[in-house]
């Protein structure tokens, strides 16, 4: 049977993510595989309409505990108790879920190896996918329940490396690192045109408040002081006029 090796030892189920391997020293007590279908049943007044779009993502559910005896852990190279093994299990899954924030991609896929059935999958954690509990009846045991959303088989290539047979295009080996937005704007001629057309005036604010001497125009400075050149000339003429009037007398 696949779950045993040549020496009669039980093969343990394992998870791999980000270069870290988590081997279950105690295999789960329950294992369930649920294959779902993308089918919708629409009930009308006179008939039933079934829309079937093929298989959906399967769901794997496992429940068990981490035991309580201290035993050798092959992943860490140390002896761990049941609590120590549970701490590794919890940190592994919470660490994986913590990398998926605001839609950001994880540092890599997570794999689940079911040596019991000789199967392996690329999986992720759905909503409510990791739970654990403790009971007063078994105070030394840490019980867990894990749901896995199966994305593909572990041996299947990434979808980004598959040519789309419908549109005849795909990324394949042409995948390259993205470029920054500023670089894209520099390389986009339409963006350059917009940038050039929306550039501000070449004159400074000071030129607008106090315009500089323009070509073809002559700026004249007022002669004398403000009083002598403006109001002063009017006053002088009035004084002279009054003097002539007073000298001649009024007839």
Structure description:
With 251 residues, the protein is α+β, with helices and mostly antiparallel strands. It has a domain of 144 residues: Beta Barrel (Elongation Factor Tu (Ef-tu), domain 3). It is built from 5 helices and 12 strands. Strands 1, 2, 3, 6, 9, 10, 11 and 12 form an 8-stranded antiparallel β-sheet that branches. The chain has a two-stranded antiparallel sheet with strand order 4-5. About 16% of the residues have low confidence.
Residue fraction in strands? 25-35%
Mean pLDDT: 73
Alpha carbon gap, first and last residue: 146 Å
Extended strand count: 12
Poorly predicted sequence stretches spanning 5 or more consecutive residues: 167-177, 190-219
Question: What is the helix tally?
Answer: 5
Indicate the structural class. alpha+beta
CATH class of one domain reads Mainly Beta
What characteristic shape results from the CA principal axes?
Answer: extended
**Sheet with most strands:** 8 strands, antiparallel
Helical content band = 10-25%
Q: Which CATH-level-2 architecture of one domain?
A: Beta Barrel
Which series of helices and strands comes N to C?
EEEEEEEEHEEEEHHHH
CATH level-3 fold name of one domain: Elongation Factor Tu (Ef-tu), domain 3
The value of Rg in angstroms is: 42 Å
Q: What would a concise description of this structure say?
A:
The protein is 24% helix and 27% strand.
